[in-house]
Amino acid sequence: MSAAGAVRVRQHQPGADIALIERGLGVHDAPISTTFVCIGDEISTEGQEGFLRGHGTQVVDEKLVATVCGVVERVNKLIYVRTLNSRYNAEQGDVVVGRVADIAGKAWRVDLKSRQESKLLLSAVHLPGGIQRRRNAEDELNMRSFFREGELISAEVQSVHADGSVALHTRSAKYGKLTHGQLVEVPPNLIKRQKQHFHTLEALGVELIIGCNGLVWVAPLRPDRAAAAAAADIGADAADAAAEAPVAPPPSKGQLEVVCRMANAIRVLTRLYMPVYPASIMAVYEAAMDKNVELRDMLEPDFLEAVVKQEAQRRNSAMQE
To answer: How far is the C-alpha of 28 from the C-alpha of 31, rounded, in Å?
Structure first.
């Protein structure tokens, strides 16, 4: 083989990728950095006698070694590695965004990008006008008037059954069909759980639904949905509030640009594997506006590097305080 066609293979250096990230963020000897491991990295068991080997680990030459990339978790004597790109595990009360896959019987099957099958029963939907009554055969025949296959909806996890299947409900007016917006998919591990997952940014004219399953909905602000969400928060009649709200006009070009910028801000956080929540999204959005970054350039390496430097400065300032 000629010298030009020769292939050079470097020896694997455990922890080299972690050191690279730490150098980029200006972090040295960070206590949390030792909990991140890649395949082949040794997991420290010093001072821990009789440990139990959990998922994502293997004993090689009397040393505990990671078999997957992720975060080391310790529960009493159990040591396991939680993978970073795992599928969503539903929990009761989670706000989720999903796509209707099909209709079977008296239920819609909804794709949540999760491990479990998810169903939305006809009895668990919000009827037009907020009417409270039993569902009948006519409602079953008209199920596609509520949600059709392929449509996006927001819902809440009502329960998780013993077999792992998920039951959803949309009994509040703030849940339901999603239209005229953008859907951004992020790893569920990056979603920061909060008390509220419906966010209204009135100054920008944008509404956010941050699904716990990693699907984020960004859309122009609609007065009827904003009124319904506000009424639901204070326990008022959401249906009446939505009906009394003015009809939303078609979104302007400026609103659509803001929606696209917010969606790109979420994509920036996803590429940098940073937590996704309103404050972090706004930080990236404002950084792009301050630097006069064009919409099409928000995902370019130059802006990504600027966001990393900004986050490094924020963390260093927090450590000094």
So the answer is: 9
